[in-house]
Design a protein that fits this description.
The protein has 13 helices and 9 strands. It is α/β, with parallel strands linked by helices. It folds into 2 domains: about 25-160; about 175-370, Glycoside hydrolase/deacetylase (TIM Barrel).
């Protein structure tokens, strides 16, 4: 009993130390130019890439104890942190190369970047002068990218003991890394709360906008809806959209004894009732899944669908416009990828239309959900 008590106290202390910091968001009104063309999208993209690169480079000066302290953790998986850092650098270099293709049209934030050493060199000396047209953006952006980097490094520091979307366990797990430049996929999680459920509103908005998204549903939610409405009504709700599964209920699938049954039952239910919408994708709640699950998922014909851009619009986090502004900033930074919204938060009804409107003139594309993760 005494040992169990001491262990429980230790776990509580670790949880307290491991509490995450502020969720990053950036007021886009600090950026002085409206994004009204593909070229101006590139200008803002180059700026965000350089700012994040400078923050990422600075973090490498911290030794392991200092990094653990910064992230609010007792210990960190330094190998995982370094692996994620390396992946971030690779994406930043590729994205800057895309973003600088319009430098002949607008040279703002255009510097000589030919390879990784020159990107790191530019990151080391990057600064926005006090008399710059962009000065009101500079400090808020630096704060945003510092907080966002800490979000990513904290997940990396806990990986794989606490799994998340920050890294993959194998090629059966997919995110938006391989997507074309300026191409994004909208996805919607169900999360744990039962209400409000904005699925009908979101699917109707997407249809009117000639867009599609992938909705990751809980098996028990679909079962409950079928008890109240007909299959044809549910099919009409999801018409032209895609449905993957998040399991039978919203809970970690990394230590749940019945996780395989959770995935299997949900997939069978959706596939049987909504065959036109079903896509063979499983999204782990909060990104938590087992490292040894490859055989199971391949036997089930499923892929694990992760994400690159998190709206952080869950309960107690960002609401509406701040969530949308975070997503837009990350779209400028990563230039392609899978966006993750929470369909059971009312903020999505504000965030999604704002985001679609803001990005309409900038030459991006929205991936058809049936073509994603192929």
């Amino acid at each position: 009993m005494r040992i169990a008590f001491l262990i429980s106290i230790w776990l509580l202390s670790v949880a307290a130390i491991a509490a995450p910091g502020d969720v990053a968001t950036l007021d886009r009104s600090t950026w002085p130019e409206k994004l009204v063309s593909p070229t101006l999208f590139d200008v803002a993209s180059r700026a965000e890439i350089l700012m994040f690169s400078s923050v990422l480079l600075a973090s490498e000066a911290l030794d392991e104890p200092a990094m653990a302290q910064r992230l609010g953790l007792r210990t960190i998986n330094l190998e995982s942190v370094n692996r994620v850092r390396q992946h971030l650098w690779q994406r930043l270099l590729a994205n800057y190369n895309y973003a600088q293709q319009s430098c002949d049209q607008d040279a703002s934030f255009c510097f000589l970047v030919e390879d990784m050493p020159t990107l790191r060199e530019q990151a080391a000396k990057f600064q926005v002068s006090a008399d710059s047209y962009y000065i009101k953006w500079a400090e808020p952006s630096r704060v945003f990218h510092t907080q966002y980097l800490d979000e990513q490094l904290r997940k990396a520091a806990l990986f794989p003991q606490t799994s998340s979307e920050v890294d993959h366990f194998g090629d059966y797990e997919r995110s938006g890394d391989g997507m074309h430049d300026r191409l994004f996929l909208l996805t919607f999680d169900s999360a744990a709360n039962a209400a409000p459920d904005n699925t009908a509103w979101v699917t109707e908005y997407l249809r009117k906008s000639n867009m599609s998204g992938t909705f990751f549903v809980l098996g028990k939610d679909i079962q409950a809806r079928l008890a109240e409405q007909s299959v044809s009504h549910l099919q009409a709700t999801y018409s032209t959209q895609c449905i993957g599964v998040q399991g039978w209920e919203f809970r970690s699938h990394s230590h749940w004894q019945d996780w395989q049954d959770s995935v299997r039952r949900s997939a069978e239910l959706v596939k049987s009732k909504l065959p036109e919408n079903f896509v063979p994708l499983f999204r782990p709640p909060d990104g938590q899944r087992r490292s040894d699950a490859e055989g199971f998922f391949k036997a089930q014909g499923l892929q694990v669908a992760l994400w690159d851009i998190d709206a952080q619009d869950g309960a107690g986090k960002l609401k509406g416009n701040p969530s949308a502004q975070r997503v837009l900033t990350l779209m400028l930074l990563w230039r392609h990828g899978v966006i993750n919204f929470n369909v059971k938060q009312d903020g999505v009804k504000t965030a999604l239309p704002w985001l679609v409107t803001q990005t309409a003139p900038v030459g991006i594309g929205w991936e058809d959900c049936q073509d994603a993760f192929r």
